[in-house]
Amino acid sequence: MPELPEVETIRRSLVDKVEGRQIHGVEILLPRLIKWPSAHEFQALVTGKTIQQLDRKGKYLILRLEDNMTIVIHLRMTGRLYFVNSGEKPDRFTHIIFDLGTGNKLFYADTRTLGTLYAMPESELWRIAGLASMGPEPLSAEFSPAYFCGLLSARKGRIKALLLNQKLIGGLGNIYVDEALAIAGIDPDRLAYTLNEEETARLYQAVNQVIDEGINHGGTTFRDYRDGTGKSGSHQNYLSVYGRKGQPCKRCGAPIERKEVAGRGTHYCPNCQR
DNA sequence: CCGTCCTCCTGGCCGC
DNA sequence: TGCGGCCAGGAGGACG
User: Fold this and answer.
1) What is the pLDDT of residues A190-218, one digit of tens each?
2) Residue A57 within any structural domain of the chain
3) Structurally, how many domains does chain A consist of?
4) Separation of CA A246 and C1' C2 in angstroms?
5) Nearest nucleotide from residue A60 CA, by C1' atom
6) SS (H, E, C) chain A
7) Domain termination residue (choose one: A102, A132, A162)
8) Would you call A59 a catalytic residue per the annotation?
9) Containing domain of residue A105, as a range?
10) CA-to-C1' distance for A105 and C3, Å?
11) In the annotation, is A259 catalytic?
């Protein structure tokens, strides 16, 4: 599941390969993945344009083309964007193919087909609500201790739901939320406003730490995730709780448990997280 | 306004 | 060995 560290790793692995390249054509094998405008209009808007910059905001990839055109991609659960050399054949999960010329292509593949793609002028990016209303990202100046503290005191919901809410904090998903709560020693079921000053400071630090480490390890490869060159990440080797149900807590040895919090499968140490 | 639940989608895994 | 059923979860919409 690509979260901020995975999407950032994909961006870094592709930036030198796509910036300055022209989109010679687009093959759309599964039109319903194009959320705006129609698949036909998408092709017309981007064909012939040069990719000037590859950006990321939260879990969104943003390809900035000439003439202020943009392609926005959200990988959701199983989306993959990768660069291929001439001769590489698309498999049955490859749904969109960008032809970059001289045999190079950019494949968008997606087993569960939940990913979304958009093309529009930069001035119309407000149409993508999830992008326009996204909260500040961990590690950014905007994501300050004061901002985080203000979020927690104002909310009645569970801390896990708050951390997953992209309008409040951009880029966290289920894996990094469980990890941050484990590092901070906080039960995911806690109501946000009940965290005291010291717990809030620990959680703030932990959120930034897991995102920083996730990026440094090239993301977490559980099943589908690969970077833009097909390489796996390594952060799965450093996880405290996610996917470790029944295995001993690395801090206290108690078995990691799994429960449902805020409608999500949630991994935690019942001994260390209170 | 806010929080909770449902929906989309398919491969992989579990149990009989 | 085959197959039904359930699970994975990001985000948007319905609903209270």
Assistant:
1) 999 999 999 999 999 999 999 999 999 99
2) yes
3) 2
4) 30
5) C10
6) CCCHHHHHHHHHHHHHHHCCCECCEEEECCHHHEEECCHHHHHHHHCCCEEEEEEEECCEEEEEEHHHEEEEEECCCCEEEEEECCCCCCCCCEEEEEECCCCCEEEEEECCCCCEEEEEEHHHHHHCHHHHCCCCCCCCCCCCHHHHHHHHHHCCCEHHHHHHCCCCCCCCCHHHHHHHHHHHCCCCCCEHHHCCHHHHHHHHHHHHHHHHHHHHCCCCCCCCCCCCCCCCCCHHHHCCCCCCCCCECCCCCCECEEEEECCEEEEECCCCCC
7) A132
8) yes
9) 4-132
10) 39
11) no
